[in-house]
Amino acid sequence: MEDYPANLMEFNERFATEQACREYLFGLRWPEGVVCPRCAGTRAWATRRGLWHCSGCGHQVSLTAGTIFQDTRKPLRMWFQAMWWVCSQKTGASAVGLQQTLGLGSYQTAWTWLHKLRRAMIRPGRDRLEGLVEVDETYVGGREAAVIGRGAKDKALVAVAVEKDGRKIGRIRMGLVGGFSAAALCQFVRESVKPGSTVRTDGLRSYLALPAHGYIHDRILQKEHQATASELMPGVHLVASLLKRWLLGTHQGRVSREHLGYYLDEFTFRFNRRKSRHRGKLFYRLAQQSVAVAPVPYNAMVGGSTQGLTSNI
Asked: Which of 112, 138, 214, 304 could join 240 in a cystine, given CB atoms 3.0 to 4.6 angstroms apart?
């Protein structure tokens, strides 16, 4: 049963104490009772230090161990406030905004928290898209003077899949792809779309391999139509345009290549829940997934390249 506050007033009343936050998190992580991560035992008792001692193997585990909250020095109540604030920002959340809202001492802390939460926005094993799905690619990144479109070198290539129901847009999926090869694009489709669905693409030959993977391929050759590409596949072009506008408006377009995938996850999380009547339901989903995602320390987040994409998106 989904359990969440309907509005800010209910949120403040329900999570007024640290203990209330711990009890809520306990229910999300162990709805049937404590489960030992080492032996899967279900009999445990609480220690004075707030740990759970497994009666079977003697292993001790904390409520936050193995979640995005692991090793945090801040109270869970502040994390809950951060999650509620993130879910309340319809246009997206920035590290500066979170830092100012919670009064965090450093930008680094706010940035780290947001990236931990972004990692929890995509549920492992989520359902794939189905029915009629439009698939296309778009570039995200800096402007190159001599190269436009396919072949640009200093931009990130993003694949986009959009469910269509007549003129309506359903759920979406996004992902970084390594190029226009059949292997790269068909892998994205396999991860995003349920076999047996109809996948509508442009004339790129890489998609010709889709039937071999169990899909019905609806290939549209623009040269055979008077309409523009955005008119032939309006859903995927609209979503790609909204993504670029969101990156530019919320993040001023300065998103590093290393972390772009997590920004795509945030956009997908928000877009697929755009019709939700209660912000509390988004909070519930984010909290639920936060206890199912493995912790990622700050050093691991910044261990790769820090090259950024320019603001000309």
From this structure: 138
